Amino acid sequence: MFRKLSDRQVLWGGIALYTVVFGTLTALRHYHFATQAWDLGIFTQSFWNASHGRGLINTIEQVSNHLGVHFSPILFLLVPGYAFFQALFQEGGQYYLLIVQTLALALGAWPLFLLAKKILSERGIVSSFWPRWVVVAYLLYPPLHALQMYDFHEVAFFVSLFLFALYFLEKRNWLWSAVFLTLSALVKEDAILVVLFAGLFLLANRTASSLPPPSVSPHRKNIIAGSIVVLALIYFFLVIKVFMPAEGGGLFRIDRYANLGNTGTEIAGSIALNPLLLIQTVATPQKATYVFWLLLPLLFLPLLSWRALILLIPGLAENLLTNYSPQFGSEYHYDALLIPGLFLGAIYGAGFFLSRFPNREKQLRVLFLCAILLGFLVRSPLRPTAFPTDYFRTTPREEAYRNLVRLVPPEVSVSAHTNLVPHLANRAKIYFAGFEPELSDIALLNTEDLFGFASAEAMNIYITRYEKSGQYNLYVFDDRYVVLVNKKLKVVGLPAEAKQ
Predict the structure, then answer these.
(1) C-alpha angle 32/33/38, rounded to 5°?
(2) Element (DSSP H or E) covering residue 431
(3) Looking only at Cα atoms, what is the longest distance across the chain?
(4) Alpha-carbon span 132 to 116, nearest angstrom
């Protein structure tokens, strides 16, 4: 049946199916209080402030302006949509962010399909199998699912934008290449480095059979490639030395590389002058396993294209040089910068193999399909053994959380448990409980969930701080949910069993 479908049906059917499945799951994840203060809560409040003309401001991150933590001006393009859906219904903005992220990731299949058709046809491989199944591999790729399922992140938009940029670079359409490379660089400060390496990739492809076409001189292509490198480098230094500091921020996440040094200069020195420390940092079983599972769903085909591997250098360096384990676990959003390069490498790798061993295509097809399936069944958060069935049923905890959210008036300041923050972030002041700079009007806690607190004792000290101020009434219900309310406020809707 799959063979009888047209290419258009496979492509757009796959995109539609992905959008429906993941759009539903991410919406349910938020509805059932599985989203977090970091990161949906941060982005919700930032967009809420931006929609009121105050910029991407929030009260959760290290500095008030999100651009000081991650320089992502592309987010301003999403503000009108956020404002529209937030005006339509309660928490409409949150669901808008999750759905538009889903659609952006799904649409990455489109330029990938075009890339596969162009690159492989130029190598004499005209079968529709590879473009179709590369799309399937993308839509079933576990790191893509992990990026999709963990809240909202600006870097998700890099995937499809950069794939479009790569497609237009292949086409030698310099205008549209420039547009999508610029949009890619506007996603985040580390995305700029991938754009820089796209220039190096273009330089390295001078001998590839499809690059450049006869109508484009190598000299002109090299000038364009060099311009990409230079402009990206200038923009990167402007961002980290001028724009982010101007917002009170900087490269905060550099502390995740303290194993190599405390500053960029120290880290570069360790990499260049201390090869033993570098090997000890990178060559660990956990990181080897991480790379293995990045490549296995693509049958390790990217390893057959050294030019495409150039695109992976920034992302791999970012994830392998740190000892911060979430970055090399493929369970969050940290693989976003790698996904376009990995899939371009898989396409190049398939073309390399088939141009040399055309009689082995049948075997390669079978192995590729097995790799796709194995990767999904072992690593995807949607695999049968890990499918989030909890998103389809309501628990007493969720009902209690819903009651807590209903208690809070829109104009007050709130400190709350991480899973409550995204539902309460459409306001001027929202804090992750335990990190507020001053006592909030209302504090909401689940004493059985210590996330954010070192211990039960630390949470008790936190609650006592509010009580000792003499300004708060304390209510407890279900022997675990604590509501601290400023005595000046009148709270309506407390459960009948709440004890003061």
Answers:
(1) 145
(2) strand 430-432
(3) 81
(4) 9
In the chain, the amino acid numbered 292 is F
CA dist 89 and 116 (Å) reads: 41
Name every residue whose Cβ is closer than 8 Å to that of residue 60 and which is 6 or more positions away in sequence: 37, 38, 41, 42, 45, 421, 430, 431, 432, 435
- The model's pTM: 0.94
pLDDT score of 72 more than 70 = yes
The residue type at 272: A
Q: Radius of gyration of the chain from Cα atoms?
A: 25
CB-CB contact of 45 with 59 (8 Å): yes
Distance CA 130, CA 152 (A): 31
Structure tokens at 16: 């539609």
| Residue 389 CB neighbour total at 10 angstroms | 7
Contact 409, 489 (CB under 8 A): yes
Instruction: Give residue 262's pLDDT.
Output: 86
Distance CA(346)–CA(325), nearest Å, equals 26
- Each residue's pLDDT tens digit, 207-250: 444 444 555 678 888 999 999 999 999 999 999 999 999 999 98
